[in-house]
Amino acid sequence: MIPLTEDRKMLGYEVLASYPDISCFVTTRHGGCSRGNYASFNCTPYTGDDAACVRKNQEILCEGLPQRPKELIIPYQTHGTASLVIDKAFLKSTAEERHAALQGIDALITGEAGCCICISTADCIPILLYDRKHKIVAAVHAGWRGTANHILRRTFDKMQTLFHTDGKDIIACIGPGISLPAFEVGDEVYEAFRENDFPMDYISEWKPETHKYHIDLWAANHLQLLDLGIPSAQVETAGICTFTRHEDFFSARRLGIKSGRILSGIMIKK
């Protein structure tokens, strides 16, 4: 990853840096005004932070981007696999209609320039996709449930159906999230991946000292991207563990659910 601001409150992806029509970012914990478990650069509005602080942080974010978005679109995620296309009909809808449409959504897709689609995470895996042929972007929230239930495949299928996306045209970015050494799981999580035909010898590790499995969400999602026909050279993995680097990135396992979130966003420039 590469710094987008000198104070490193926002990072970007090298694999997308050569595409001038795309703007993307990943926020860190630094550079905002929130306090406590939200300190300091929390831009997500639905986790219990002070609303005025969230608005101020979002303004700081928008001002720091190379091109100011018309708006930040942030779904109300539920660890499911539902996706929503942000189109002209959505943009013309009322605030109440938008709010309802964004409930229970864990992936956003758009071809509308100037609309920055975002995903909130704090140990889960944020994934940004760019179809460079058809100028379509997607932001995907891949926690362990979403990953196990193939949210990437489901999102790609919608992109393919609606926009004729082909895997060979996608640039994919796997953002900061919890690493295999830090992601200790119960048997039910291990079984969820096994039952969905993941290669468990590749994406998991048994720790005899704790009698627990650990899951590699980075590897599990990388495999899914390759299965979609995306060349490995077009996939960038941040390799940043949020649990280990909790001073720089929000980690729900460290701070609890009532805490800040990393915001990952991608936008087609106007």
Automatic annotation (TrEMBL):
Keyword vocabulary terms for this entry: Hydrolase, Metal-binding, Transferase, Zinc
Family: Belongs to the purine nucleoside phosphorylase YfiH/LACC1 family.
Taxonomic classification: Bacteria, Pseudomonadati, Bacteroidota, Bacteroidia, Bacteroidales
Catalytic activity: adenosine + phosphate = alpha-D-ribose 1-phosphate + adenine; S-methyl-5'-thioadenosine + phosphate = 5-(methylsulfanyl)-alpha-D-ribose 1-phosphate + adenine; inosine + phosphate = alpha-D-ribose 1-phosphate + hypoxanthine; adenosine + H2O + H(+) = inosine + NH4(+)
Database matches in InterPro entries: Cu_polyphenol_OxRdtase, Cu_polyphenol_OxRdtase_sf, Cytotoxic_necrot_fac-like_cat
NCBIfam families for this protein: peptidoglycan editing factor PgeF
Protein name as annotated: Purine nucleoside phosphorylase
A GO molecular-function descriptor: hydrolase activity
